[in-house]
């Protein structure tokens, strides 16, 4: 009978394989590649990084001169009268007065207490912060893709286990009907076998629904049509060689959340430099070339014009501003202190997360071994029980118990692998060491 079960199971697997051959076989490497190209949040983070990169210019830091062109044209029509000192007077209705001026002016701040250099450095740090945010987004999304992918793998394994259960339940129903037809079993045994088969079919249908929904979720992470059908690989490979100390060292260097806090402290320090720069004078060079022209219908001069170059400099120094300079520096120093506290807090949180995740990882690795052994025992027990059921030495309840034990053992073994994989993903994400 065990040979028949094996043959039937292989037959079911053959038809399933024939059906899925037309489907895309999506590997985890392909899934990560698609996510990196298509995921919306990753695209937004990439654009934000480009914005930060675009902002890093000497002009944005205020190091370059500015040039402006201007044109002013004024016209008016008035009824005017004039009385001279010799007592004579003159008047004119609708007197026209016109003035036109245009030119180019140049301004250049040549010294501002080194604020412009601190500003440029701050823009560079903001670019690094954008890069860190992009890395954090990628790690989170790749972690989600990995979790969703291996969830599909375990659900696919559970579907295979339920398919095997259906095969066994069908054989049990056939045996019960044969025994009933020759008078060795009651109608109750046939009905129980039919009820259990129906229950197994319901469980299979629910599992298919869960599997289909998991596919839709993965397609969402990949930012592609939710109706795309595909098949995942059948194996869950868990890296069982992770070492906590190595992960902690990597996290100190690569964890994007910790990296962001370190950058924020550097930004706060540069902000203090800019605030302190306000204690120094600001020196600005000015220059320009202007043309002026005016016409008047009434007066001693009917028209004037001038053109030429002007140049000079101005310097300003803040002598007293109501102690705002002192207040601003104090606030900037407190921001630096807060940044240091945030680094220490992030370090503690990171070490705690790594320690707890690693303990879960070790437990899950042990569970894989236990559940693998349980599955082998449950399979052997089912084979023996099936042989005994055939000759009528055990009850249908005992047979059903052995059958469910086998299915549950397969499901637990699959889930143990999945949970261990989730622990591995979580640890590598914290360490900033996901392979993508």
From TrEMBL:
Main location: membrane
Name the UniProt record assigns to this protein: TolC family protein
UniProt-annotated stretches for the region Disordered: 70-92
Family: Belongs to the outer membrane factor (OMF) (TC 1.B.17) family.
Intracellular or extracellular location(s): Cell outer membrane
InterPro entries from the UniProt entry: OMP_efflux, TolC-like
Source organism (scientific name): Flavobacterium cupriresistens
Record bears the keyword Transmembrane helix: no
Superkingdom of source: Bacteria
Keywords recorded for this protein, A-Z: Cell outer membrane, Membrane, Signal, Transmembrane, Transmembrane beta strand, Transport
Pfam families hit by this protein: OEP
UniProt key word S-adenosyl-L-methionine: no
First and last residue of the signal peptide: 1-22
Biological classification of the source: Bacteria, Pseudomonadati, Bacteroidota, Flavobacteriia, Flavobacteriales
């Amino acid at each position: 009978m065990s040979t028949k079960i094996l043959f039937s199971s292989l037959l079911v697997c053959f038809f399933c394989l024939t059906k899925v051959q037309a489907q895309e076989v999506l590997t985890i490497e392909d899934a990560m590649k698609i996510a990196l190209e298509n995921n919306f949040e990753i695209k937004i983070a990439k654009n934000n990084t480009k914005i930060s990169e675009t902002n890093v210019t000497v002009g944005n830091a205020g190091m370059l001169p500015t040039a402006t062109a201007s044109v002013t044209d004024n016209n008016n029509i008035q009824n005017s009268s004039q009385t001279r000192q010799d007592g004579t007077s003159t008047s004119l209705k609708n007197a026209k007065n016109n003035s036109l001026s245009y030119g180019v002016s140049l301004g250049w701040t040549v010294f501002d207490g080194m604020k412009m250099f601190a500003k440029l450095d701050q823009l560079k740090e903001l670019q690094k912060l954008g890069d860190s945010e992009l890395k954090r987004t990628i790690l989170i999304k790749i972690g989600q893709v990995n979790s969703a992918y291996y969830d599909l793998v375990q659900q696919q394994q559970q579907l295979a286990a339920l398919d095997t259960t259906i095969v066994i339940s069908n054989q049990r129903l056939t045996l019960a009907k044969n025994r009933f037809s020759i008078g060795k079993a009651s109608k109750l045994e046939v009905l129980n076998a039919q009820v259990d088969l129906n229950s197994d079919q319901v469980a299979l249908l629910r599992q298919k629904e869960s599997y289909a929904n998991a596919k839709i979720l993965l397609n969402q992470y990949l930012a592609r049509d939710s109706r795309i059908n595909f098949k995942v690989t059948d194996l869950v490979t868990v890296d069982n060689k992770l070492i906590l100390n190595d992960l902690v060292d990597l996290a100190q260097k690569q964890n994007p959340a910790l990296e962001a806090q370190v950058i924020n402290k550097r930004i706060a320090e540069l902000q203090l430099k800019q605030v302190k720069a306000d204690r120094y004078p600001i020196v600005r060079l000015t220059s320009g070339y202007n043309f002026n022209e005016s016409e008047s219908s009434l007066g001693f001069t009917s028209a004037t014009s001038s053109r030429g170059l002007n140049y000079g400099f101005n310097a300003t120094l803040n002598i007293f501003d109501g102690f705002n300079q002192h207040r601003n520096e104090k606030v900037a120093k407190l921001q630096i202190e807060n940044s240091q506290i945030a680094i220490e807090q992030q370090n503690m949180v990171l070490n705690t997360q790594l320690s707890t995740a690693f303990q879960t990882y070790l437990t899950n690795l042990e569970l894989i071994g236990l559940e693998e052994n349980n599955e082998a025992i449950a399979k052997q027990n089912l084979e023996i029980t099936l042989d005994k059921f055939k000759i009528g030495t055990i009850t249908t309840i005992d047979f059903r118990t052995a059958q469910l034990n086998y299915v549950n053992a397969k499901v637990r073994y699959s889930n143990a692998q999945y949970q261990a994989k989730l622990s591995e993903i979580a640890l590598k994400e914290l360490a900033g060491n996901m392979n993508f």
